[in-house]
């Protein structure tokens, strides 16, 4: 065993990873794009992007994935079990993180605040995307035409133009979509789910766009003509 400042490491590799985290050194470099990593395992996962290898296969539908964590998330599609239940409205979720986000609707908390304009958000990811509107930064670049986007989701949407692929298929009616989020939105037609709730009158909608239209046509007029 190796001792460093009273911390005990069972393996030298774990000690080295600990040191690299402290020093910010990234010794494991991808030979294709030269991106570097602290952990060798992270490099192996990254290389799958270049090779296209997807070793983790779903036993139900045989769909394959490059990462085990993505396979685990995918498996939730095949199960109807939703263990995480909202104590306010009894709505259930497959993932605890989704429940935590949902609960914020009831308590009205938006803990993530933009320092530039003070606009607040329920999710940190939404705040990060919002910040790009101030900086004008567009870090996500299309490898085909070099067009850049502020949000990765917008890049994914754009890529459908080049590929024409629609891998996300509705299991109920067979309609296919190029983007997973569009499939999720479509599924609400079948399930009747309406997750987008108006904060003024509590009316709910299946699509976020319909909620925005509702806010503009109804509540915006109320503010102009009280």
TrEMBL record:
InterPro entries named among the record's database cross-references: Znf_C2H2_sf, Znf_C2H2_type, ZnFinger_BTB_dom_contain
Metal-binding recorded as keyword: yes
Domain of life: Eukaryota
Residues in the signal sequence: none
Record keyword Iron present: no
Matching Gene3D superfamilies: Classic Zinc Finger
Subcellular location as annotated: Nucleus
GO biological process, one term: regulation of cell differentiation
Major site of localization recorded for this protein: nucleus
The entry's keywords: DNA-binding, Metal-binding, Nucleus, Repeat, Transcription, Transcription regulation, Zinc, Zinc-finger
Domain C2H2-type stretches: 28-55, 56-83, 84-111, 112-139, 140-167, 168-195, 196-224
Single GO MF annotation: DNA-binding transcription factor activity, RNA polymerase II-specific
Pfam families to which the protein is assigned, alphabetical: zf-C2H2
GO cellular component, one term: nucleus
SUPFAM superfamilies referenced in this protein's UniProt entry, alphabetically: beta-beta-alpha zinc fingers
Record-linked PANTHER family: AGAP004733-PA, LOW QUALITY PROTEIN: ZINC FINGER PROTEIN 721-RELATED
Family note: Belongs to the krueppel C2H2-type zinc-finger protein family.
Name assigned to this protein: Zinc finger protein 92
